[in-house]
Structures are given as C-alpha cells and as structure tokens.
Amino acid sequence: MAAYTATSAVGVGLGPLREALAARRSGLRRNDFGDGERLDTFIGRVAGVEESALPASLAGWDCRNNRLAWMALQADGFLDRVAAARKRHGERGVAVVVGTSTSSIGASEEAYTRLDGDGGFPADLARPIVHTPHSLGDFVQQALGLRGPAVTVATACSSSAKVFAQAARLIRSGVVEAAVVGGVDTLCGSVLFGFNALELVSSEPCRPFDVARRGLSLGEAAGFALLEREGSGPRLLGWGESSDAHHMSSPHPEGLGARLAMEGALSRAGLTPADIDYINLHGTATPKNDEIEADAIAGLFPASTWASSTKGWTGHTLGAAGIIESVIALLALEHGEVPGTLNSAELDPLCGPQLRLDNGQRRCRHVMNNSFGFGGNNASLLFGYA
Questions:
Q1: Taken in order 38, 42, 48, 52, is the CA torsion positive or negative?
Q2: Which residue range or ranges hold the Ketosynthase family 3 (KS3) domain (predicted)?
Q3: How many CB atoms lie within 10 A of CB 84?
Q4: N or C: more exposed end of the chain, with fewer CB within 10 A?
Q5: Total domains in the fold of the chain
Q6: What digits encode the pLDDT tens for the residues 331-383?
Q7: DSSP state, residue 20
C-alpha cells in the first residue's frame, strides 16, 4: 500500500481520523441534510462539501459526490503519490477501480426537481456524465491524469471493498503495474428516505452490537489507496468474496456468505483465524446484520482476536464503507491503535469474546475488514506486512 487517505464526518485526512478514534469523538450529528422534510435521525455528514469547488478543468464533472472525492484526493499528499506512480508506470500503467452505491444520484434528483419548460434537465445539470453510475470512476481517472483501465464497482455496501480484489487481479495478471482504489458515497434523498422505507434507520446515534440497537446511522465519506506490484508498507495479503443470493436486503440467516468471504480471505493469504489480530466488522447496528455477523465471528475466530464496528464514528457510509474501514484497519496495523465500538454500552449476548467496546493498544500483524452489502454481496480483506 503505497499510500492511503480517508475523509469522513470526523474530518479530512488521516490526522483527524486518528484523533477522533483515539478521543472516541463521533462525527454523527442530528440530521440537517436537504431542504423541506427531514428524517428524525443522526447522520455522518462531511463539513465543507457545499463550499468546495472543482478545478475549472474538471467543472464538467461537478456534483456533490465528485466534490467530496476531490476533497479526499487532495489530503495526505495522495495526489503527489499518484503522480509519482504515474511517472514510474506511465499513464496507462495505473488503473482506477472505485466503488459507489449511488454515484451522483443526488445531482439527478436535483435535476428532476428543476426541469425546464420542455421537461428537460436545467442547463447547469445537462451534463450526461454526472447522471451515470460511472460518474465517479470517470472523474477520478480524469482528475489523476490516468489512461489505464477505469472500473466503477456498484455492489451496494461492499463496493469499495471489492475494488481491492479487482485491482489485485489486474496487477497480478500483468494488465497494470499499479491501481488507485477507493470509494465515495454522499448523502441524498434516495439514500435517507430509501433506507427509512426499509425501517432500518435509527432515530438515535447507531449502537452496533448493542442489545438495544435500533438501526443504522447513515453517513458519507471518500477514501483512496494506491496499490503497487512492488513497494514498501502494508500489503493486501488476501481477499474473499461471496454472494448469498438469499434476499434483497437481508443476509443469509446462518451467515453462510459472511463466513465464506472470511474463509476465502484467510485461505488466499495462507493464514488461520488465530493469525488475525483485529477485525473491523461491518456492524451496521441493524438487528439481523449484527446478529448474524457476531455469530459468524464467534464461530470462526478464537477469543484472542479483537473485533469492533467503527460506524459509531462515521455512520454507515454505504459504498464508501469498504475503503473507510479498510483505512481504519490499516491504521491499527501501522500504529497499534485498535478502536472499540462507539455508543454501545451492553453487548448482545450473541456476541462472542472477540467483540470489544473499549479502544486498546496491541501490536497487530494481520488485520481484516468485512463489508457486506444488499443482495448478499460480501467481501473480506486481509492486510499485513509481506
């Protein structure tokens, strides 16, 4: 991992993220998003997106989602690290693989509220690229000056975890020498009211794995990482992917897909469950998701493994959850600062000894990140040092 960065409700870049995790300072706040009717809930909203602007050369991609992407790309020297990789490998030697669940749908929603007299989109939003699922991927490729493969992954909440697997396959097959991976999702009406229609949204800050959890808190975020065939730093050691095909919005009742994804990551990395020091869980604070994931963790990993959900800090950032929580796992790997589970007070009895409420310090050799999406799209990633 040549470089990585994350922007969420707790701030822009790695510094604010580490500080918020250590101080157990949540980025969640009462919903103040949008005009008119607002849901009674808490959200993880990124400050400054509305006031930010894209460079003139990228104005054609302007929308809230791409503005958040640009904010994240500028943090932690990430643009410079990609520029150096572009110089080493050439414009076509670096792929872009990004994940998103809603892309720029917020811009499409706005366009439909401001149709012109002929029923068409208003002039300022009559830009087809921002109304496609590939808006994010196309924007990131243009912003970074790259000309290699560009892929947008949209597998709901596992989107920006699955990008790591796709990028690794591109590198291992010799198609490219490096890849920029990441994910971005922003809040919009479709997200807030859609999840509320499924009765998954809590009216209080989310409490993952708590016995009295009431649902999720939605958030927005952007994050990126640079993967290279050769180099120093933490490595992607393994990944596992599975598809439940059980239900549109509920996981397999026995956690079959979740377990297969975790076992696949362990197998590809040549590791055993006892080798994993920390797992960043999907842990959305919905009743069924947490119950099934907790049972899978308890049945697969020894008591010595530490596990937690960090959605109490950022909210559930949907298609960006995979990258944001991979970055948090990478921080634990590099610095030994392992987060607990924020806002929760009493763990569900179904949780095993792996689940932790409090932060802790421990030397981590191998860390895992779980991302499980609607439709049973599951991905588990394993990071460590080669």
A1: negative
A2: 1-385
A3: 14
A4: C
A5: 1
A6: 999 999 999 999 999 999 989 999 999 999 999 999 999 999 866 789 999 99
A7: H
Which CATH number do you get for residue 94? 3.40.47.10
Q: Quickly count: other Cβ atoms within 10 Å of residue 183's Cβ.
A: 36
Pairing label, strands 218-219, 235-243: unpaired
Most distant pair of Cα atoms in the chain: their distance: 65
Q: Which of 4, 61, 101, 26 is nearest to 320 (CA)?
A: 101
Which residues are the active-site residues?
157, 282, 316
Give me the torsion for CA of 153, 50, 110, 201, rounded to 10°: 70
Q: What is the pLDDT of residues 214-233, one digit of tens each?
A: 999 999 999 999 999 988 88
If you ran DSSP here, which 8-state letter would residue 98 be given? Answer: E
Helix (H, G, I), strand (E, B) or coil at 351: coil
Question: Quick check: pTM over 0.70?
Answer: yes
Domain that holds residue 136: 3-384
User: What is the distance between the alpha carbons of residues 321 and 309, in angstroms, rounded to a whole number?
Assistant: 11
10 Å CB burial of residue 18 (0-12, 13-18, 19+) is: middle
